[in-house]
Write a structure and sequence with these properties.
The structure is a homodimer.
Chain A lengths: L10 H11 L4 E4 H5 L14 E4 L3 H13 L4 E4 L16 E4 L6 E5 L4 E5 L4 H9 L3 E2 L12 H6 L7 H4 L2 H4 E7 L5 E4 L13 H4 L8 E8 L1 E2 L3 E9 L2 H12 L5 E8 H11 L12 E9 L2 H18 L4 E4 L3 H12 L2 H6 L5 E5 L5 H15 L5 E6 L4 E6 L7 H12 L2 H4 L14 H7 L2 H14 L13
Parallel strand pairs in A: 2-4, 3-4
Antiparallel strand pairs in A: 1-2, 5-6, 6-10, 7-11, 8-9, 8-10, 12-14, 12-15, 13-14, 13-17, 16-18, 17-18
Helix pairs in contact in A: 14-15
Pfam family, one (chains A, B): FAD-oxidase_C
Family (chains A, B): Belongs to the FAD-binding oxidoreductase/transferase type 4 family.
Keywords (chains A, B): FAD, Flavoprotein, Oxidoreductase
């Protein structure tokens, strides 16, 4: 047995071995990690060490070291995941992609960006915007979420209904497999039917089948101006009808976010906005944004569209933002979901999708079902209307008792499969949704997942305990 | 050994066994097949028998029968594939999905269609159009190509630059795996991050990992009117600049097809069009189409856009179609590629993609490279400009001598990987492009493909000899 084949030795020895093996990587031991912000989940930095490789070659080196030492490794991006996909154990290594943060190329003529995995979404958005382009993905965690993490979770967000989810933005991918091989499929084209598209397996696998290191991302033209309106509606059906009409206009609809009034009232109060200025008396609020060549042109298009809507929706209430600053304020009403977690620490949260026309009936059944579990349980409801993605946060500090949690999940997830929906729309499975996946996914799909995990990672070293049971 | 475990017996016995095992399927023996049109490839119907299952249960039954009899099976849709992905051998069974041709549901509010695999693209287009919607995929073989086949080859076509390739249109999928299991992932939502997206492996696998039986397809709003123009340009760069400007306008650009003049002159002559009416003196022709609420509105938007273009492109030559009938004629100029194969029977054809801004330089290198192989070899060049997909047909009857073919492939494919392109953009690998795949794909991707094939189909019964070596 070679020295490197030995199972775990004392931590200081292993740290020294790592540092010797990975000269171009930063290695932080437990003491150094204790002083760091773990991000969304306290368990994110509970590891033997965090390694921040300085190159793709060092990522390969890290995986080789882990295989030789039979040490599990957990890829981490922005640590903004909500389902425990990046949590670690004291005998595991973190592979932090943060140092691979180079935007290698923006090619405006072809509409592509070549980036390393640790680039944040906002950094890519800014670089693309300089050429009048956009990566076609946007979400509230844009400042910390990384491209690698967004690929690993197949992120969705605000613009998915128009520009697709992350899977639809990835043209090329490079990744280190659990056995240390580098798969290089960095095509820069939309069309390639050249054998099994194995990179699709890595997209959405949450780092359990390999570590994404680089990607080619498709960029779309970005309107220079955008104008925002907040409309009060009688429910999701009316909001969806408005969205359908806005989408048939010539100015592109850039966002269609829905909030039920309980959610909007909570964020309105926390932000100190004047509730009288907002259509909070309506059961549902719809935040829409149109794009055009300038703010003024977008605002004019939005006002024309709302005037046309008033003919079929005479009771429509709402405001059109008068400035970019006011638009930003309306967006905070939707995006400052942290408010909920300050009101209800570790509040149980869910992330589902279903055909949007079923929203009203679903919500109408959900409220009494939750009340039957606990008379005071109320859901905060908000989400991305146009792609049928609904977020649900309970007005309860978490975690729930196991029996209550089971009853709540049954109420929230129970009918989704029959509707053609998903119990995990964009947050992924991580470590927290495995039981739900086992319960609600197609059994053959589950069996295939386990077979694929064994094929890619027979020693179960690559982000073990996530996604697959 | 049970009777069913026996290897192949005499053909009539096997046909009788099949008929007994699959009471709701049509079974055509060799004699019946000999009288049928094999479609694009003469080898498509060279089989023990063709089975046309009447239900998904019978597809499972067919696969079970094949496993018990160690008989290979080849899924077939419209038999319009160009790379021999559906060809058969005399000891193989064809699984023809043609009887599974039900459009189960069009849900206009949610923008989805639920279809069986044997539905043709044109049937789905017509059904969706009745609700003002479109499946977001279009190609010349629309009348015969089936949804199952389009999924199996991850088809691209005319609209991909705007609405994505087939992979981007599939929300849900049902398939029979090579071991007879049915994987049911018929979600109806855009956003689902619920474990490995195993259906992505089946998309583009050309029937080698399973048989697609049903799918949920995303539908997009369809403009009522569309207007077409044919413009003469100095090359792909100018055409791409025009496309970029048209895409920044408010009327959606629905198509951006490019033809080099040699191709357009050939189809123009074959169609009996008056060459003096077309901008054939230009090196490149660009066919563009804008959408709007009516033909008149679209035509007006197109004329306005071209007037604006004239300021930056003063020498722009071309015609705007005056009627829908004239539009159809312009489209035939682009789509009647059969002309080439009548001029040059079995002409060698290639289907590549590369970042479109590299088109001119690529073509400028390609012509002399082909001439160096044979002084009279000229390429017909045409394709889908906006997504970088170029079709190349040689002015030669096929097949080429092996050494000439190798030299031609080296000239056409040689630099694509370095450019981030693909040697197979939308036609797939089938049986004819396996050697090219082995030569040009990433070796790790190739190894993973072989591992995946073994995992899904260890007995190599499911469309053997296609895609993987």
């Amino acid at each position: 047995m070679r020295a490197e084949d030995m199972p775990a030795g004392p931590a200081p020895d292993r740290i020294a071995s790592l540092r010797a093996h990975l000269p171009d990587s930063q290695v932080l031991d437990r003491d150094a990690l204790a002083a760091r912000d773990p991000g969304w989940d306290a368990g994110n930095l509970n590891a033997l060490a965090l390694v921040r490789p300085g190159s793709v070659a060092e990522v390969i080196g890290l995986v080789s070291w882990c295989r030789a030492h039979r040490c599990a490794f957990v890829p981490q991006g922005g640590r903004t995941g909500l389902v425990g996909g990046s949590i670690t154990a004291p005998d595991q290594l973190i592979c932090d992609l943060g140092a691979l943060d180079t935007i290698e190329e923006i090619d405006p003529a072809s509409g592509i960006a070549v980036v390393q995995a640790g680039v944040t979404l906002s950094a890519l958005q800014e670089a693309a915007a300089a050429s009048g382009l956009h990566p076609g993905l946007d979400l509230a965690a844009r400042g910390s979420a990384t491209i690698g993490g967004l690929i690993a979770t197949n992120a969705g967000g605000i613009t998915a209904f128009r520009t697709g989810v992350m899977r639809h933005r990835v043209l090329g991918l490079e990744a280190v497999l659990p056995d240390g091989r580098l798969v290089d499929d960095m095509t820069r084209v939309l069309k390639t039917s050249a054998g099994y598209d194995v990179k699709q397996l890595l997209i959405g696998a949450e780092g359990t089948l390999g570590i994404v290191t680089r990607a080619v991302i498709r960029l779309d033209p970005l309107p220079n101006g955008r104008a925002t309106a907040l409309l009060g509606t009688t429910g999701a059906a009316q909001a969806l009808d408005i969205v359908r009409q806005l989408r048939s206009g010539s100015a592109p609809l850039l966002a269609a976010e829905i909030m039920w009034s309980g959610f909007a009232a909570a964020t309105c109060a926390a932000l100190g906005l004047d509730p009288a200025q907002l259509p909070l008396r309506s059961p549902c609020l719809l935040l829409v944004e149109l794009g055009a060549a300038s703010f003024e042109a977008a605002r004019s298009a939005l006002e024309d569209a709302l005037a046309a809507l008033a003919e079929t929706e005479p009771d429509l209430d709402g405001i059109v933002s008068a400035s970019m600053a006011q638009s930003a304020q309306l967006w905070r009403l939707r995006e400052d979901t942290d408010v909920l977690y300050r009101l209800h620490p570790q509040a149980p949260s869910y992330d589902i999708s279903l055909p949007a026309r079923a929203f009203d009936a679903y919500v109408a059944r959900l409220r009494p079902a939750l009340k039957a579990i606990g008379p005071a349980i109320e859901p905060y409801l908000f989400g991305h209307l146009a792609d049928g993605n609904l977020h649900i946060v309970l007005n309860r500090a978490g975690p729930l008792q196991p029996d209550v949690q089971a009853a709540v999940e049954a109420a929230i997830y129970g009918e989704l499969r029959g509707l053609g929906g998903s119990f995990s729309a964009e947050h992924g499975i991580g470590s927290k949704r495995i039981a739900a996946l086992q319960r609600h996914a197609d059994p053959v799909k589950l069996a295939l997942m386990a077979e694929l995990k064994r094929l890619f990672d027979p020693d179960n070293l690559c982000n073990p305990g996530k996604v697959v049971a």
